[in-house]
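Pipeline run #58 for the internal structure catalog. This entry was flagged by the ingest filter as a single-chain record with no existing model, so it goes straight to prediction. Upstream metadata was stripped on purpose; only the residue string is passed forward. Reviewer on rotation: M.T. Logging verbosity set to normal.
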Amino acid sequence: MNEERYAFRVRQALNHGLKDIPPAASRRLEAARHLALSRQKLAAPQLLLAGPANTFSRSGNPTAYLKQILAILALLLGMWISFYWHSAQYVADLEEVDSALLTDDLPPDAFLDNEFFEWLLDDSSED
């Protein structure tokens, strides 16, 4: 609200000073105003596709483009390292299960038998 009051006072002061300006100066000011308004560029909305080519052409700075490429490469490298680490963990878990099965007293065929699983379920329910 304070800004509106200030703008109103400035407008009043400028309008009050209009009387003191000579007519020739007033005409020159008006012509300069029209010239400035005619030279003013209107911002036209532009549709741009997202991508490195548009980013490079707008910024005009090749280091910004290089930084974006390096960031994408770092992200892809991180994703690859994460995938490799998780797959290595999965293989290690499978190795652990396989070694436990091979060193167990039961033959591996017993785990494939459906009656064995039923016997395990029945035996555990009695406890």
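catalog note: Residues 6 and 71 are 48 Å apart (CA to CA).
catalog note: The chain has a mean pLDDT of 80.
status: ready for reviewer M.T.
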